[in-house]
């Protein structure tokens, strides 16, 4: 929330905002991959 407030406050340039959004998207993608790997590992452990 703090990041969103700063991005929307006008304190950052448009380039800064693009970098923040890109970084957040990359983090989200990595979290999705991690969740999938954990689910797959759990399925293997159950069999």
Secondary structural class = mainly alpha
Q: Uncertain segments of ≥5 residues (pLDDT<50)?
A: none
Number of helices: 2
Spatial shape: rod-shaped
The largest pleated sheet is described as: none
| Approximate strand percentage | under 5%
Order of helices and strands: HH
Q: What is the average per-residue confidence, as pLDDT, rounded to a whole number?
A: 87
Q: Supply Rg.
A: 17 Å
Number of domains: 1
How many beta-strand elements?
0
Euclidean distance between termini CA atoms: 41 Å
The helix content is over 70%
Short note summarizing the structure:
The protein has 47 residues and is mostly helical. The protein has helices at residues 2-9, 14-46.
Explain how this protein is built.
The protein has 47 residues and is mainly alpha-helical. The protein has one domain (2-46). The chain is 87% helix and 0% strand. It has two helices and no strands. The relative contact order is 0.09. The mean pLDDT is 87.
């Amino acid at each position: 929330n703090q990041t969103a407030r700063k991005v929307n406050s006008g304190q950052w340039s448009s380039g800064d905002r693009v970098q923040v959004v890109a970084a957040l998207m990359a983090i989200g993608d990595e979290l999705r991959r991690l969740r999938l790997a954990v689910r797959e590992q759990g399925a293997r452990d159950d069999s």
